[in-house]
C-alpha cells in the first residue's frame, strides 16, 4: 500500500481530477480543475493507491499482475525502453503501433497515432495498451481527441490501460495534461502511474505510485509483498511532506510544479533554436524535458563516421558526437521495436534539463 501519510496526500491530490464538472474542465483556470472529466468520486487511499520502488516498480507490478502468457500488449513506437522487456518477462507478446510525424512536423504533437493502424493491432488476445503522456522520448502531450480514441478502443475491446504519466507536471501551455482515467468509462480499467523522482527532480529516490481500481491495486499489493515488500519509510515521509506543501500552493501559481515549467520550457525553446541553426531539424517539445531532432541533413564530415552496416545512422552520429564534440545524446532507434527502427534512424534525443552554462557549452561544441 505505502506509508499512510503518503497515500492519503496522494488521494487528496488525485481525487479532484475525478470530481470536476465535465463541462468546466476544458476552461478551468486552476491546476486541480484543468482536466477532470468523470463522475464525482473519492479515491480510497488504502485500496486504490499503491506506492512502489519508482515508477519502474509500478510498471513492473502492473504488467506482471495483469499479463498472462500469450496476452498481447499494445505498445506505441517509440516507447520508453522498459515496456517491452517487462511485457516479455510476464510472458506477454508486445504488439507495436507507430506514432508517425506529419510531413510538415514542427512540434512533438505533430507525431500522430493512426486510428486504423491502432484498430488493426487488436486481436482476441489483446489484453492491455500502454499509454505514455507526456511522452518520452518525443515530448508529445496527447490531446483530448487522441485520448478519447484510445479510451473508445479500450472500452469496445475490454482492454486495460496502463497510463505512464510521470511527466504530468511538465506540460507547457497551452497544452493540458488530461488523465485518461478521468474519461467516461475509463476509471475501472486504468492504472495511472506517477513518479516522485520526476515530480520533484529527485530521480535517485526511486519512489513511484499507481492509482486505480481496487481490483487491480490488490493484485499489485500481493505482487509487491512477495518481491520488494515495501519502500523506504524516510523517502515516503519526505515525499508526503513535499506533496502536502505543494498541494496547498497549487491554486496560487507559486507551486514548484508551476516553477518547474517556467524554468524548463525556455530551455527547450532555446535548444530548438540553437540546434536548428546548425542544420538539424528539432521538434518543439510540448512537455517533459527531452527534445527530438532529425539529423539526416546535418552536414557531418563523412570520413569521420563509422562505416559499420550493423549500426543505424542515429547511432553512428551519436558516437561521432561523443568522440568529436563531447556531447552525448540517445539515438532514437533504441526506443523502437526491431520492425520500426528505421522510423527513428535519423533522430537523436537531447535533454535540456541542465544548467544553462552546461547547455551553452554543448551548443558551442556543436557549432564549431
From TrEMBL:
**Functional pathway:** Amino-acid degradation; L-kynurenine degradation; kynurenate from L-kynurenine: step 1/2
Source superkingdom: Eukaryota
Task: Please provide, alphabetically and separated by semicolons, the GO molecular function terms listed in this UniProt record.
Answer: kynurenine-oxoglutarate transaminase activity; pyridoxal phosphate binding
Give start and end of each Aminotransferase class I/classII large domain: 41-366
Identify the taxonomic lineage of the organism of origin.
Answer: Eukaryota, Metazoa, Spiralia, Lophotrochozoa, Platyhelminthes
* A GO cellular-component term linked to this record: mitochondrion
The UniProt keywords, alphabetically, are: Aminotransferase, Pyridoxal phosphate, Transferase
Record-given protein name:
Aminotransferase class I/classII large domain-containing protein
A Pfam family this protein belongs to? Aminotran_1_2
Query: What organism is recorded for this protein?
Result: Opisthorchis felineus
Q: Which cofactor does it need?
A: pyridoxal 5'-phosphate
Q: What is stated as this protein's family in its record?
A: Belongs to the class-I pyridoxal-phosphate-dependent aminotransferase family.
Signal peptide range in chain numbering: none
InterPro entries recorded for this chain? Aminotransferase_I/II_large, Kynurenine-oxoglutarate_AT, PyrdxlP-dep_Trfase, PyrdxlP-dep_Trfase_major, PyrdxlP-dep_Trfase_small
Q: Gene3D superfamilies under this entry?
A: Aspartate Aminotransferase, domain 1, Type I PLP-dependent aspartate aminotransferase-like (Major domain)
Amino acid at each position: 500500500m505505502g506509508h499512510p501519510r503518503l497515500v492519503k496526500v496522494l488521494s487528496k491530490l488525485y481525487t479532484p481530477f475525478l470530481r470536476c464538472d465535465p463541462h468546466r474542465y476544458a476552461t478551468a483556470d486552476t491546476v486541480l480543475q484543468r482536466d477532470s472529466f468523470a463522475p464525482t468520486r473519492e479515491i480510497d487511499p488504502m485500496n486504490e493507491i499503491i506506492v512502489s520502488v519508482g515508477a519502474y516498480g509500478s510498471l513492473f507490478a502492473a504488467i506482471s499482475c495483469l499479463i498472462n502468457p500469450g496476452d498481447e500488449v499494445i505498445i506505441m513506437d517509440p516507447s520508453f525502453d522498459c515496456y517491452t522487456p517487462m511485457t516479455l518477462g510476464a510472458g506477454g507478446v508486445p504488439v507495436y503501433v507507430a506514432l508517425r510525424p506529419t510531413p510538415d512536423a514542427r512540434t512533438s504533437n505533430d507525431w500522430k497515432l493512426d486510428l486504423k493502424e491502432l484498430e488493426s493491432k487488436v486481436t482476441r488476445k489483446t489484453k492491455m495498451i500502454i499509454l505514455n503522456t507526456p511522452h518520452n522520448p518525443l515530448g508529445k502531450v496527447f490531446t483530448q481527441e487522441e485520448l478519447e480514441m484510445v479510451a473508445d478502443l479500450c472500452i469496445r475491446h475490454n482492454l486495460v490501460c496502463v497510463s505512464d504519466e510521470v511527466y504530468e507536471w511538465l506540460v507547457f501551455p497551452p497544452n493540458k495534461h488530461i488523465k485518461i482515467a478521468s474519461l467516461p468509462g475509463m476509471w475501472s480499467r486504468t492504472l495511472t502511474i506517477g513518479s516522485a523522482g520526476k515530480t520533484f527532480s529527485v530521480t535517485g529516490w526511486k519512489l513511484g505510485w499507481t492509482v486505480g481500481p481496487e481490483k487491480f491495486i490488490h493484485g499489485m499489493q500481493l505482487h509487491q509483498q512477495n518481491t520488494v515488500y515495501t519502500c523506504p519509510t524516510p523517502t515516503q515521509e519526505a515525499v508526503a511532506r513535499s506533496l502536502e506543501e505543494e498541494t496547498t500552493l497549487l491554486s496560487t501559481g507559486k507551486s514548484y510544479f508551476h516553477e518547474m515549467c517556467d524554468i524548463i520550457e525556455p530551455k527547450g525553446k532555446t535548444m530548438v533554436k540553437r540546434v536548428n541553426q546548425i542544420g538539424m531539424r528539432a521538434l518543439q517539445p510540448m512537455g517533459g524535458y527531452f527534445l527530438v531532432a532529425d539529423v539526416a541533413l546535418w552536414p557531418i564530415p563523412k570520413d569521420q563516421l563509422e562505416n559499420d552496416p550493423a549500426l543505424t545512422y542515429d547511432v553512428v552520429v551519436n558516437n561521432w558526437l561523443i568522440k568529436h564534440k563531447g556531447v552525448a545524446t540517445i539515438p532514437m532507434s533504441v526506443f523502437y521495436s526491431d520492425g520500426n527502427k528505421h522510423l527513428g534512424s535519423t533522430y537523436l534525443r537531447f535533454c535540456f534539463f541542465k544548467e544553462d552554462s552546461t547547455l551553452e557549452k554543448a551548443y558551442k561544441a556543436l557549432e564549431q
